[in-house]
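Exercise 7. Given the encoded structure of a 311-residue chain, write a plausible sequence.
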């Protein structure tokens, strides 16, 4: 049985040694797909990811099939799953009698789901959960981009989007407010200990100011009035890296110390009371699709879990 797998040495001849012995088995497409995926991937975990199913459920299905057959179907050899002779005969019988393809069943071929989440929210809030999602669902078809605006929504280019700014009514989309985002100035702790920190904008001129090129209005105003050096980059992650290693003062979300403890906030240098709404948009016509509904719940939960950052 699968829960006590040992290397195969010998399978005694019996009912399962003849392909005709499988004729009375009730094997549906889902069970056949579980078996083929396990053979193809040589790994239960990857097979489960391919089928978008919990690995324990997949193993239990195959274990019950082995119990009905009275013989193992898969064994480990050199840390890889391989079919036993009974498993090989079952594969041949399934292909011959039902003409089943060895790939995932057709209902796993979901349509492309287009997700757009503006930075820094993609990197800081949604990224971890998205990584976990794709790790467990190898057959999902996703397009993820790090920007979203209402123009893209109006053109119908986004299925699930997260924007910054005032919520707008967009035909064909539902909308939900997820929180608010503010901005602050930060410097790495090690540079803050070596000298006097800037207490006003005049003193800020002696520091390199770094911010995202797609700066929000309050950030753009700060950059426009800065009399010292400035660097604008198109990567939110690079802003944080330059703060940590480049002795720069960086414009980062107010919650940034929740993610990086080795930075110090510089209060009073930017209007941190000007906060922007975070809005979730979702295409109404796709509600009810399993992948869409699952992703919508994931995004809602991702922001809800960090509501204290976004209050």
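Solution.
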């Amino acid at each position: 049985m699968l829960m006590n797998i040992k290397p195969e040495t010998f399978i005694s001849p019996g009912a399962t040694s003849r392909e005709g012995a499988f004729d009375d088995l009730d094997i549906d497409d889902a069970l056949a797909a579980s078996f083929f995926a396990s053979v193809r991937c040589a790994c239960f975990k990857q097979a489960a990811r391919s089928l978008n199913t919990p690995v324990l459920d997949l193993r239990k299905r195959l274990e019950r099939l082995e119990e009905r057959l009275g013989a193992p179907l898969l064994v480990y050899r050199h840390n890889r799953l391989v079919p036993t002779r009974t498993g090989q005969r079952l594969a041949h019988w399934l292909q011959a009698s039902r003409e089943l393809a060895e790939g995932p069943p057709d209902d796993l071929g979901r349509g492309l789901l287009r997700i757009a989440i503006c930075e820094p929210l993609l990197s800081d809030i949604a990224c971890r959960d998205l990584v976990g999602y794709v790790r467990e669902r190898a057959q999902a078809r996703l397009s993820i981009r790090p920007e979203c605006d209402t123009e893209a929504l109006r053109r119908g280019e986004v299925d699930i989007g997260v924007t910054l700014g005032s919520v707008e009514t967009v035909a064909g989309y539902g909308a939900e407010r997820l929180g608010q985002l503010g901005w602050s100035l930060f410097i790495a702790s090690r540079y803050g200990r070596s000298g006097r920190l800037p207490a006003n904008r005049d003193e800020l001129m002696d520091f390199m100011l770094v911010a995202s090129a797609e700066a929000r209005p309050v950030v753009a105003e700060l950059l426009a009035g800065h009399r010292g050096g400035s660097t604008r980059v198109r990567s939110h992650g690079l802003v944080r890296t330059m703060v940590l290693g480049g002795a720069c003062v960086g414009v980062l979300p107010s919650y940034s110390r929740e993610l990086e403890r080795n930075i110090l906030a510089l209060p009073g240098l930017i209007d941190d009371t000007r906060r922007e709404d975070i809005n979730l948009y979702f295409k109404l016509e796709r509600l009810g699709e399993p992948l869409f509904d699952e992703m919508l719940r994931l995004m809602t939960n991702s922001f809800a879990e960090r509501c204290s950052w976004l209050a």
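Remark. Residues 42 and 80 are 5 Å apart (CA to CA). Students should compare their own answers with the one above.
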